[in-house]
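As noted in the main text, all predictions were made from sequence alone. Below is one such record, for Transcription termination/antitermination protein NusA.
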Amino acid sequence: MENINLIDTFAEFKELKNIDRVTMMSVLEEVFRSVLIRQYGSDDNFDIIINIDKGDFEIWRNRTVVADNELEDPNLQITLTDALKIDDDYEIGEEVTDEVKLIDFGRRAILNLRQNLASKILELEKDHIYGKYKNKIGDIVTGEVYQVWKKEILILDDENNELILPKSEQIPSDYFRKGDNVRAIVYKVELRNNNPLIILSRTAPAFLERLFELEIPEIFDGLITIKKIVRVPGERAKVAVESYDERIDPVGACVGMKGSRIHGIVRELRNENIDVINYSSNLQLFIKRALNPAKINSIKIIEEDKKAEVYLKPEEVSLAIGKGGLNIRLASQLTGYEIDVYREMEEDDEDVNLDEFSDEIESWVIDALKGIGCDTAKNVLNIPRAELIKRTDLEEETIDEVLKVLHSEFD
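Prediction:
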């Protein structure tokens, strides 16, 4: 029965497609030889023949024929009487080769051998998975959701290997159910308690980069290079691209006709707003492009502080800053310069600074108005009431009171 179990384990080992033949032979021989050493004290005089295709093996022992009264080591020697039982042609000094059967090892030795073999199989499998995914760090993989937990999702690849997608590496609006297919990049590969832990990510900039390579042939072929990617997952991303061929417009190639190429990427990223920017070694030009869609009047670079002072019309300020400061933050990350926005005011003798209304308008309301680029009374009055309410997120009554105070100033 133990013999059958051992052959079953061997057959299971033989079925592992991802372990190369040489490794398989080496491991099997190592396991058998360790049992021989424990059983006989040495394995030097044994030949092990492994038949990988059939899934079985043979063990042969070589011993020298000695006179019946000269036997010293029954593992290395065999008496003439015993040798003649195998073949009546043997003589003293000749070498006898006979097969050692598993049953000769005893039940305990066979059980140990089976457990050792099963352990080696598991170890090799773990090494294979670890090595395979270690080489895939930064690559996209696709798997099927097997289990959804509060802090992470368990995903199985096509070989049923377990992959983990933590909540922190999911796009905020991601929602997966069991059976869903998921695309992500291999983010980290670790050994935890001697088990390979493969962590995926959908929020890393590299995931967006791989998607661009999949969707845009010019990037895959190396005609267009991605210089840098910055993103707030699920919200907005900025991608700086450069073409080495003057005939290719890198931005147009990435976006495609009517957004056809980038649409699939946006959908995969849960409608993340992607700005594709033509990279330039001219820093001023690059900063202007990075702050798109705002129109910049002028830029002052402070090289030693890695800062850029950007001057633009008041109505462009909110565009430059973006919702929640997202546009300016990503532009700063993309260019590597801390960007400060300044409003360029046109001379107007009749206009009044908002700070002068501090006795009639509360300071937090003035700050909210300044936050959308309004420093003066006329700045505020030039913006329609509905637009003011929307952009400042202030109550209608508050805006109406502000407009009443400002109008009375000019009336």
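The CA atoms of residues 16 and 125 lie 8 Å apart. The two ends are 105 Å apart (CA to CA). These features were considered when defining construct boundaries for the mutagenesis experiments described in Section 2.9.
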